[in-house]
């Protein structure tokens, strides 16, 4: 899929209405957790922003994902979009997403063209409400990874994400022995699940409509 075609396709769809929870539920791990859609809990949650950044590489649209280091926390080792928590000095969550992407993978603020946002997503284990900011850059980014925050940068072709065979099912085993059945996106043999998979599910629906 070409970048110009993708952005043209998304710009009108991001105005709304968005698939939101219906798309999220398709990739929700375990049993349906209704607390994810509790408006009161979302209103009290900490705020964060992630950046979905499209760019062209080898004539095809790509986006970057990052893998976290193993650290024993809630999201240890998981694959996610670049992003993080809102700081008081941030004027808005779009800035938060840009700032975090700059810090984590070296994307320059001025190169990011924002075209809209996906639906907010509440993450109960960490009590964050995440705003996914959709954007693109006209030139292929020169990524500079912060190795303290990011273990690996994963460049993903959009055409791969929207293939039906990319979505699979597995059981995630945690350190305490607990197993969680979950759908996931298979990205070059890597398991992309949880909140990131739920956001990708909404993005996939918008692209394919």
From TrEMBL:
Protein's UniProt keywords contain Metal-binding: yes
Domain of life: Bacteria
Alphabetical keyword list: Hydrolase, Magnesium, Manganese, Metal-binding
GO function terms (MF aspect): coenzyme A diphosphatase activity; metal ion binding
UniProt xrefs under InterPro entries: CoAse, NUDIX_hydrolase-like_dom_sf, NUDIX_hydrolase_dom
PROSITE patterns reported in the protein's UniProt record: NUDIX (PS51462)
Cofactors, names only: Mg(2+); Mn(2+)
Pfam families from the UniProt entry: NUDIX (PF00293)
SUPFAM superfamilies according to UniProt: Nudix (SSF55811)
Entry keyword annotation includes DNA-binding: no
Nudix hydrolase domain boundaries: 45-180
UniProt-listed Gene3D superfamilies: Nucleoside Triphosphate Pyrophosphohydrolase
Matches recorded under PANTHER family: MITOCHONDRIAL COENZYME A DIPHOSPHATASE NUDT8, NUDIX HYDROLASE
This protein's name: CoA pyrophosphatase
